[in-house]
Amino acid sequence: MNDELVVTQSLYFLRRIWPHTGRNTEERDQGFERKFREHIWASLRPEKLSSAHCMSFAAGLTTLTGLLHELDLIARWGNQEWVFELKHGGGSDVDKEMLMVFNEKVLDFYMRNYGFLSSLRIMRCFLTAAPRIEDRLRAYCAIWGIVLIDNELLPIPLLPQAFCEKRKQISEGILVDVEEEEVNSAENDAWKLVEQSCRPLGELIELSDMSEQLTIRLDLMGCSGMALVNEHRRLYEKYRNWLCLVRKV
After folding, report:
1. Residue 247 falls within a domain, yes or no?
2. Which residues contact residue 215 at a Cβ distance below 8 angstroms, ignoring those fewer than 6 apart?
3. pTM of the model as a whole
4. Which residue, 13, 178, 203, 221, is most buried by CB atoms nearer than 10 A?
5. Which of 48, 38, 36, 46 is nearest to 10 (CA)?
């Protein structure tokens, strides 16, 4: 399962399904998590899908600290695993505590079970219907490799796909008023942004052969978190008309 499909289906749920879904006021999140879980199962058929509010990383695992952590959803395809934090918004903004707690919960499991979890390609996704995300929080996601899916910007993993489709349209003669060189340059910039800011957890944590200690390595390839956010906004705002890819695969 490639990243683009997972992100595309998650974005499709957020922008096309959830706005037209009846709310269940008896559920704490009005049914957001349950409906998303149903959508991921129906659209992507993961080999393993955790129960709602899983407390053991869907594998009977414990944490380094011994604390119990609830994870909203975990989906696995082969050796690839996606861990989702789901916030329906409810009119409130995302705050730093939401992101930090999600990040630290996953790290707590990963540090305790490195031998097992390091064999998986673990991606983390924060999906929210909240009306606003501050850029400093986008920077936090970029630094830690968390894929952010919200209602404002096209998620970073989908940017290369958008430019690739435009390049195909140029080669097929469908687009005649766009320079192929500009599209190629934008696509290269988008791929670089993906490599810098949407990374599997295993690329951030490594085991030292000498000391047998786990080390967190946040290598942004010479960029700051805000620089990555600014590049995301530049690509999105400059090529906004090219990036209308909110569709079901």
Report:
1. no
2. 205, 206, 207, 208
3. 0.89
4. 13
5. 36
Q: How far is CA 41 from CA 7, 70, 76, 86, 91, in A?
A: 14, 20, 11, 16, 27
50 falls within a domain: yes
> And the tokens for 46?
């993961």
Q: Which of 79, 80, 81 is nearest to 71 (CA)?
A: 81
Range of the domain at 80: 3-242
**Coil, strand or helix at 147:** strand
Q: Across residues 148-174, what is the average pLDDT?
A: 84
Write out pLDDT tens, residues 128-137. Answer: 998 889 999 9
Kindly indicate the confidence band of residue 166, based on its pLDDT and cuts at 50, 70 and 90.
Answer: confident
For 214, the enclosing helix (H) or strand (E) is strand 214-216
2: its two tokens: 């490639």
Instruction: Let me know: does 189 contact 235? Beta carbons within 8 Å.
Output: yes
**Tokens of residue 88, six digits:** 């329906």
Per-residue pLDDT reduced to its tens digit, 209-239: 655 677 777 766 667 889 999 999 999 888 8
* Per-residue model confidence (pLDDT) at position 50: 93
Q: Which residues contact 26 (CB under 8 A, 6 or more apart)?
A: none
Residue 14 DSSP symbol = I
How many whole angstroms separate alpha carbon 150 and alpha carbon 140? 15
d(CA 110, CA 63): 8
What distances in angstroms separate CA 73 from CA 13, 87, 100, 186, one per listed residue?
15, 12, 17, 33
Q: Domain holding 214: CATH number? A: 3.40.1350.10
Q: How many domains does the chain fold into?
A: 1
Segment holding 174, helix H or strand E = none
What pLDDT sits at residue 247? 42
According to DSSP, the β-strands at 147-149 and 80-87 are: unpaired
